[in-house]
From TrEMBL, chain A:
Name by which UniProt lists this protein: Gluconate 2-dehydrogenase subunit 3 family protein
Start-end of Low complexity biased regions: 15-29
Family annotation (InterPro entries): Gluconate_2DH_su3 (IPR027056), TAT_signal (IPR006311), TAT_signal_bac_arc (IPR019546)
Region named Disordered: 1-31
Pfam families for this protein: Gluconate_2-dh3
UniProtKB/TrEMBL annotation, chain B:
Family note: Belongs to the GMC oxidoreductase family.
PANTHER family named in the record: PYRANOSE 2-OXIDASE
Presence of the UniProt keyword Flavoprotein in the record: yes
Name listed for the protein in its UniProt record: GMC family oxidoreductase
Domain Glucose-methanol-choline oxidoreductase N-terminal: 141-332
Domain Glucose-methanol-choline oxidoreductase C-terminal, chain residue ranges per copy: 433-553
Single GO MF annotation: oxidoreductase activity, acting on CH-OH group of donors
Keyword vocabulary terms for this entry: FAD, Flavoprotein, Oxidoreductase
Alphabetized SUPFAM superfamilies for the sequence: FAD-linked reductases, C-terminal domain, FAD/NAD(P)-binding domain
Keyword Methyltransferase: no
Taxonomic superkingdom: Bacteria
Regions that span the bilayer: none
UniProt-listed Pfam families: GMC_oxred_C, GMC_oxred_N
Length: 272, 581
């Protein structure tokens, strides 16, 4: 029997407020940041970069020391995520579909948080509002022609338009197939709907459903694993799950070790 | 009407390795040099505190902004080429230092075989071994002639490396010792050696010492920081034009770098280039910059496109196989394939690394294997790399795993530090039907036609690559992996241009009928126009291009000096000079 997932996904706000206690408070300059700067001195302070200096300074680095406290700062201090509001999505319904979909792509499990708890929907909202969503650095001149699959993205839609079309189409498919909105169906049913998009089986206006789904899938992983400065990977939990140490300055002293080295992650906030 | 500027002696377009080396050499000789670069001005400071995978690897911060210009592309001759619209599919350098800053730094030499590929193929296998339509030709220079220039480039960039047991003769060792051998690299080397291969640490522009190059520039010691390929180096530890040749040029006092200067045409009077037309991208003002010598070092695509737009040289015609500009386009498009080894009980520190950290072997390279009974020519280099994997990019899962959802999450987390990839970098041979020309439909920001790429895979490519994937699979199995997935080769070219290995269009040779430039990269049709870069490769050897780009740039600089000192003229008499005249 499929587990009903109402509590997690139909009420996104509920889910988000539940995770507040572990949420990063980025305006709080915690102890770890000061410790970080003190212990790592010149590198963090911004002197490294020119010629000979780099090599000498690099030797002061030892991944795994000086940074153990970096994670603590994320939890001390008050909850303060003013950035968890929407810049792009205007309708709740669209955003709720997004929430449900990304949680299926990267679900919460015994390994750790899923996409929602990691802030991925807000990450995607910001990405869609910015240059990526607007295809600002892509070639968007006509004429637009479909071309062969090997010829890649040929849609005249910008990514943020494509997302609105795609997300609403998810709901339509869900209603056609299960007579319920996407957020209200069981997770197995959600998976089936998404699978149809992934396989390119859904008719979609202006682009293939497979193209839309691959963008959605990739941007979800980006939200899980990019630096928390973008609003996802909340509290660096995505990195911790992956045993990824973030933006470390150097590995010269440890790279030859036989053993796997676990290192508390550093974010870019710790670099400034 | 463009605004007229005062004439300069040497005008260089593009500030990567190609343009940077020529700029430095000519400025050192006392010539006035101006270098025009379309992108932003950059320094090492720009690369500090930006260890940001999303911004650089996923969003291509350092790559060409396609909203103003891209290429169109097709994988079959008889379909309409369409624009490559997405940055994910098109990675070309854009700012000061170009792709030569965000490169990974593996710095190879091509094989003696490459430079005489036609002669050696005919000698060993007979003319009939070359399939109909394959346009391999000799380069008009031998490895021995180019060797001193390779040596110079390796010393300028501060290459770290060790002798390659199967490599061609060298006049000197690498200037720096090899990079460190990590446990996973050792595992690969042991396995490959067990199978009878001859491995070596890859030659790397990530410097292993605090190095001073012959021009007095410092390249710092690499910190194995992992944010390397697709990034600039915040330590100044990657041999790139910013910390070496551009700094050298600057110090002479004879050099001016004009960033945000987009070159649109080379002016040509039928015999010589008289200068270039460019737009200052900040003001929109157009300038005409006259020069005694014009050097194009603006990468394969722009080099070819500027000549076509400026109507210099005869455009290549795939139907008659006549003409030269646009001919013999090749790229390492198939080199993305290999085999992935998954380990259930071993973990590696894959998040640590450097762009060129790795090892390889050449037992299947070039013509080392006997091709008599094989259905392809050329070969490949087998390698393992440790770039320093980012968590967005590294989500390898064994074949059969879905690529999203709970199982994907579970397996991608589990195998993050338990997957090693062995891949095969293929020699890519030219065909009469693979070429560059101007697109009939699509335009750039100014309304000028885009460059059109026609690139069709052939059985040669698929057979060679399948052979290579098999070699990779064998090594991966010997490494003791629990699961080995040999990657499936796509049937058709997918019209993506990632990785920066594209060549041809303005190829070198000893015959103006079949080549555009001589072995100084001087144009047969314009004696004061030198076209520098991988655009000059008549085919793609099975190694990364930049070592050869650097060597050819030193060769070109020597030619330009000779040209200016001797009052002009062609530096090489052409094989077909009577026909030409
Ligand atoms: C991610 C990545 C990794 C790579 N790793 C390796 C590697 O490990 N080993 C290797 O050998 N190669 C590697 N390469 C390839 C390498 O980057 C190129 O071979 C090398 O940089 C070519 O040097 P170049 O000077 O010819 O071109 P570039 O360095 O790209 O310089 C060309 C310059 O010309 C400028 N330009 C272009 N058009 C115009 C115009 N119209 N007007 C004015 N300026 C213009 C560009 O902005 C650019 O700055 C890599 C490439 C990429 C993308
Ligand atoms: S890996 Fe080495 S060369 Fe590459 S960016 Fe880091 S320090 Fe520089």
């Amino acid at each position: 029997m499929a587990e009903k997932n109402d509590d997690k996904q139909t009420d996104v706000n509920q889910s988000l407020s539940n995770s507040d206690e572990t949420t990063n408070s980025s305006s709080n300059e915690g102890i770890s940041r000061r410790t970080f700067i003190k212990n790592t001195g010149l590198v963090a302070g911004g002197v490294v970069g020119g010629g000979v200096l780099g090599g000498v300074l690099g030797n002061q680095w030892f991944a795994g020391t000086d940074t153990e406290t970096a994670g603590e700062a994320e939890t001390d201090g008050e909850s303060n995520n003013f950035q968890e509001a929407r810049m792009f999505f205007s309708r709740d319904e669209d955003f709720n579909i997004l929430n449900a979909a990304v949680e299926r792509i990267f679900p919460e499990d015994e390994n750790g948080p899923g996409a929602i708890a990691l802030g991925v929907p807000y990450f995607i909202d910001k990405q869609l509002a910015g240059s990526w969503g607007l295809n600002a650095k892509e070639y968007m001149r006509g004429p637009f022609q479909e071309g062969e699959p090997e010829q890649g993205y040929q849609s005249r839609m910008r990514r943020n338009e494509l997302f609105i079309v795609g997300l609403r189409r998810i709901n339509e498919v869900s209603e056609e197939q299960w007579q319920e909105k996407f957020v209200d169906i069981e997770i197995e049913q959600q998976d089936e709907v998404l699978m149809a998009f992934d396989n390119g089986d859904v008719e979609m206006k202006g682009a293939s459903s497979a193209l839309f789904f691959s963008l959605l899938r990739n941007v979800t992983l980006e939200g899980v694993y990019s630096d928390p400065l973008y609003g996802g990977n909340r509290n660096m939990e995505g990195w911790r799950m992956k045993e990824y140490p973030g933006a470390q300055p150097a590995y010269i002293n440890v790279i030859e070790d036989e053993e796997f080295i676990e290192t508390e992650p550093l974010s870019l906030r710790d670099h400034h | 009407m463009p605004e007229q500027l005062d004439k300069v002696e040497v005008l260089v377009v593009g500030s990567g390795w190609a343009g940077g080396i020529v700029s430095a050499e000519m400025a050192k000789e006392g010539y006035d040099v101006v270098c025009l670069e379309r992108g932003e001005e950059k320094s090492v400071e720009d690369y500090m505190h930006v260890k940001d995978e999303l911004r650089f690897t996923s969003r291509h911060e350092m790559m060409q902004d396609l909203s103003s210009e891209t290429v169109t592309s097709r994988h079959k001759r008889n379909i309409t080429a369409l624009p490559v619209r997405m940055q994910d599919d098109m990675n070309v350098g854009n700012d000061v230092g170009g792709g030569s800053v965000h490169w990974s730094g593996v710095t190879f030499r091509f094989l003696p075989y490459d430079f005489e590929i036609h002669t050696q193929t005919v000698d060993r296998y007979g003319e009939e071994k070359i399939p109909e339509g394959m346009t391999i030709q000799d380069w008009g220079i031998s490895y021995e002639e180019l060797e001193p220039y390779y040596d110079r480039f390796e010393k300028t960039a501060g290459i770290s490396g060790e002798p390659n047991p199967l490599g061609p003769d060298r006049s000197d060792d690498y200037p720096n010792p090899p990079m460190v051998e990590t446990p996973n690299i050792r595992l690969f080397r042991d396995a490959a050696e067990n199978l009878g291969n001859h491995t070596y640490m890859l030659p790397a522009a990530n410097s292993t010492t605090n190095y001073e190059n012959p021009d007095g520039q410092n390249v710092a010691q690499c910190q194995y920081c992992a944010f390397c390929s697709a990034y600039g180096c915040d330590y100044g530890a990657k041999g790139d034009p910013i910390v070496t040749v551009l700094a050298t040029a600057e110090e002479t006092g004879n050099f001016e770098l004009r960033a945000k200067s987009n070159v649109r045409r080379v002016n040509y009077d039928g015999e010589k280039a008289t200068g270039v037309i460019y737009e200052d991208a900040t003001t929109g003002i157009e300038y005409e910059q006259p020069a005694d010598v014009v050097v194009l070092g603006a990468f394969t695509f722009t080099n070819t496109r500027l000549l076509l737009l400026s109507e210099i040289g005869t455009p290549y015609n795939p139907d008659t196989v006549e003409g030269v500009i646009g001919k013999n386009f090749t790229g390492h498009f198939l080199s993305k394939y290999g085999a992935v080894a998954f380990f259930n009980d071993r973990k590696f520190n894959l998040h640590m690394g450097a762009g060129a950290l790795g090892a390889g072997f050449d037992d299947y390279a070039g013509d080392y294997i006997d091709h008599t009974d094989l259905d392809f020519l050329h070969g490949g280099e087998v390698e393992i790399r440790q770039y320093g994997d980012g968590p967005i990019d590294n989500n390898a899962v064994p074949e059969g795993t879905p690529n999203w959802g709970q199982e994907f999450k579970e397996k991608s987390l589990y195998y993050t530090n338990r997957n090693l990839r062995v891949h095969f970098q293929v020699g890519t041979l030219p065909w009469s039907f693979n070429y560059l020309d101007l697109d009939p439909t699509y335009k750039d920001q100014y309304g000028d036609p885009l460059l059109r790429v026609t690139n069709e895979y052939t059985d040669q490519d698929r057979n060679l690559m399948s052979y290579g994937v098999e070699v990779c699979r064998e090594v991966a199995e010997e490494m003791g992996a629990d699961i080995v997935d040999a990657e499936e080769i796509s049937e058709e070219f997918d019209n993506t241009f990632t990785g920066g290995h594209y060549a041809g269009g303005v190829i070198m040779g000893d015959d103006p009928e079949t080549s555009a430039v001589n072995n100084y990269l001087q144009m047969w049709d314009a004696e004061n126009l030198f076209v520098v870069g991988a655009s000059a490769f008549p085919h793609f050897g099975n190694y990364n291009p930049t070592g050869t780009v650097g060597a050819l740039a030193y060769r070109a600089a020597e030619g330009i000096e000779e040209y200016l000192n001797n009052g002009g003229g062609q530096l090489v008499s052409s094989k077909n000079s009577t026909q030409k005249a």
